[in-house]
């Protein structure tokens, strides 16, 4: 829930609140406030497949770390750029906010399901994710507007996003890495008999294979016996 709340707070600040902020606080018209966000969102959407590829290569946790760290590092420069008042500076500021969103929100789709075993993966993820989005993401514009009203400082947005990202970093620290691992409660998938035999051979010391979370641990014992010439046949396929 913390991961979903943090990522969607930044995302909702960009997609839902920035057009209003540019209109009410920075003097842009309603049309200008909306149009300025469109190229940034399009650019972010084009970058998402590449952050997904990066996640498949280096892992979910490092990519989520980039999202949290870049939020902390870029939030203040982003709103300083927006405060400059020119269109190019505003676009730059919006792009700096979009940068961490491209690393965090898309990769939750692969990181979160891997936290739960098969028998209740969908319900657990659905409840946790949607509660977090409704409570924190959906209220982000309201909270941000309230903070600006209370402090009289537009930089309160940056400080709020930085605080949320710092909390997310703690959650990422405890997040188990799931890239190239089988989902808890699911058997590993292989593409050939040779790959199955190799998986069985290395099951005791393979860091990417957690036998204890498999649904039928005896299947691996059957496969091991088969590999050693005993009865049965490999079932990891």
Describe this structure in words.
The chain is an all-alpha fold and 237 residues long. It folds into 2 domains: 2-174, MFS general substrate transporter like domains (Growth Hormone, Chain: A), CATH 1.20.1250; 181-237, no CATH class. The protein contains 9 helices and no strands. Helix 3 (60-83) packs antiparallel against helix 4. The longest helix has 29 residues, at 30-58.
CATH topology name of the largest domain: Growth Hormone, Chain: A
Number of domains: 2
CATH architectural arrangement of the largest domain? Up-down Bundle
How would you characterize the largest beta sheet?
none
Strand content: under 5%
Helix count, DSSP H or I runs of 4 or more residues: 9
Shape designation: elongated
Give me a quick take on this structure.
With 237 residues, this protein is mainly alpha-helical. The protein has helices at 2-24, 30-58, 60-83, 87-111, 121-137, 140-151, 156-174, 193-201, 217-227. Helix 1 (2-24) packs antiparallel against helix 2 (30-58), helix 3 packs antiparallel against helix 4 and helix 3 (60-83) runs antiparallel to helix 7 (156-174).
